[in-house]
Amino acid sequence: MFAECTDRRSPFITGACYLYFGEYPVVNSSSISFKRADLKQDMVSCIDFRRDSFQINYGAEKSFDKEMGVNGEDYASSLIEFQEKFPYGVIHVWREDEIVGQIEFYIEALFTDKAFIPMFYLIPAQRGSGIGSMMHDYLIEILREQGCNGARIPVSSSNDRGVAFYKKHGWRYAKPDLSNSNVDLYQLNF
């Protein structure tokens, strides 16, 4: 399913790159790669992705600048700390020479066979192209390699397209996210 780039080692080592070879109807899968995010070089993309994701999840209910810092500064700082703690946990999805998506995940400390995915994002222009399914398959493969057999992800209850995507891939409603009134937690066992 994944072919390791000849000049790289593991998705958990800086600079790693995996190419996905599968069959998806819209996009040439050989043009998609997954790389550990280079936060020094690509932080602007990270902030833009988080801002769009934030808008999808919260709409006008919360202010991005209030929650994530002016221009995303607090998010940028927390993402750097997150990547230091979880070196494998921020992945950029590339389509040829453009970053089109971002995955953030970590293995839970208490239940080390479970993962939490705070962000699974694909730019609007690429939604419906099959890349989201490639991202999903990549993530599940990486989690399995790390000994996980399940994961949780927050999804806005008003994000009909997102909810449909996760359900299509086997995710099930678990419970409301008590810290966010319009966000639910979905769970997948694998």
Q: If you had to describe this structure to a student in words, what would you say it looks like?
A:
With 190 residues, the protein is of the alpha+beta class. It is built from 5 helices and 9 strands. The protein has helices at residues 39-58, 64-68, 73-85, 131-145, 160-168, and strands at residues 2-4, 17-20, 32-36, 90-95, 98-107, 114-122, 150-156, 172-176, 183-189. It is globular and about 40 Å long.
Overall domain count: 1
Radius of gyration: 16 Å
CATH architecture: 3-Layer(aba) Sandwich
Secondary structure class reads: alpha+beta
Give the % helix: 25-40%
Order of helices and strands: EEEHHHEEEHEHEE
At the fold tier of CATH, the topology name is Aminopeptidase
Report, as a whole number of angstroms, the end-to-end distance: 17 Å
Broad shape: globular
Strand tally: 9
- Strand % is 25-35%
- Largest sheet: number of strands, sense, barrel closure: 9 strands, mixed
CATH class: Alpha Beta
Average predicted local confidence, pLDDT: 87
